[in-house]
Amino acid sequence: MAKVRQALVIGGGIAGPVTAIALRKAGIDATVFEAHERPADEVGGALTLAPNGMAALQALGVDQAVAEAGVPMPRMVMETGAGKRLGVYDDLPGLPVSRTFARPDLYRALLDQATGHGVTVEHGRRLIGYDDEPDGVVAHFADGTSATSDVLVGADGIRSTVRTLLDPAAPQPRYVGLLGLGGWVPRDGLTSTGGAMHLAFGKRAFFGYFVPEDGRAGWFANLPSAEPLTAAQARAVPAAEWLRRLKELYADDRTPALAMLSRTREEDLVNVGGMQDMPPVPVWHRGRAVLVGDSAHATSPSSGQGASLSIESGVQLARCLRDLPTTAEAFTAYERLRRHRVETIIAKTARVNNDKAAGPVGRVLRDLLFPLAIRTFYSQERLFGWVHRYRIDWNEPLTPRSVDASTA
Ligand SMILES: Cc1cc2nc3c(=O)[nH]c(=O)nc-3n(C[C@H](O)[C@H](O)[C@H](O)COP(=O)(O)OP(=O)(O)OC[C@H]3O[C@@H](n4cnc5c(N)ncnc54)[C@H](O)[C@@H]3O)c2cc1C
């Protein structure tokens, strides 16, 4: 297949707009097709871009504009529900600052950047199929329309349609044993946490919260549950009932959980249902189609990395298409650059999920050993350095040899 000049990008979440911006910078025309009718249609909880995610945006020169949509969050405080501090992590020196966003704000900022870079974004266009033809790929949409291009990029999230079209035997998302809920509340009357995200291993469930100096305060809850509720099943339970259950679960904890839950309006409850990740996806590309972001490598929310990894992958995919002589070589190089890193992070996150769902004995051990481990073995650099220090040099041309060297 000859060099790529045009791409259809399916999905206008995080990976889609970023990939499209990167493709445009690589001299490739990109159109984003998003199933939702309007930008940022969905209500969404809080989402933090880690230093590596911000650095990947920096490689495209869009970090500052996107950063304005969020608040700085350079510190993470781990604690027990009883208020005992387990550890404090500050962003590592010399790196871009982590930032926390309301999901719709981040989506909107990325879409604005994409259109500003000349990307066409079409809403209300749900992909239902595609044909891989010798001279191009033809995408088919639910509204009966179609579009043709050189390549098709599946940035359509954890429940990706493109992934199944690419490989009907592709695995499905797997439940990680926790239900996810969250909310936004006015900050009045709450003690500011400054730029710190607090992560509290409560007696019965995990509670994350932040109260910035400006703007709304946010919280999220991870509840251990053997039952893997879908988002639709979880939302079938009224918000008032969820808030009542949550208050019961956090009644014995000394965190701001009860104060924040009492301030949460029913309409502001974010109900994710069962939290999921993706088992290794065997086929990332075939012919003219390729996966990027959660469609290829969704990590459970506990990693705080899903969005950042999606951004990295979008930038690397565009570099490969820019520099390698054929589509097949570009897709192969892209997978080589990305698979090991993302799958390692997904696997390590499974351990964090176990900590959040620990039983009584596990809780005692965790609360005793965690501070010791942080002081001795789990230094911040050791835990996060290899994740947060990942850098992409956009201006450095990729060659098969440099790809081999960086994955050796
Ligand atoms: C509760 C929760 C909290 C999280 N917190 C964090 C965090 O703090 N930090 C972090 O880095 N990550 C976090 N994540 C993970 C992060 O949200 C994902 O990794 C990220 O959104 C992946 O981006 P994406 O573009 O691949 O997929 P998405 O953001 O899901 O976007 C996919 C887009 O594709 C569209 N689409 C789907 N199907 C089609 C179709 N057939 N045709 C056209 N369009 C389609 C969807 O409407 C959507 O807009 C969290 C996830 C959850 C669930």
UniProtKB/TrEMBL annotation:
Keyword vocabulary terms for this entry: Monooxygenase, Oxidoreductase
Database matches in Pfam families: FAD_binding_3 (PF01494)
Stretches assigned to the FAD-binding domain: 6-347
Domain of life: Bacteria
Annotated PANTHER family: MONOOXYGENASE (PTHR13789), PUTATIVE (AFU_ORTHOLOGUE AFUA_6G14510)-RELATED (PTHR13789:SF309)
Name of the featured protein: FAD-dependent oxidoreductase
Gene source species: Sphaerisporangium dianthi
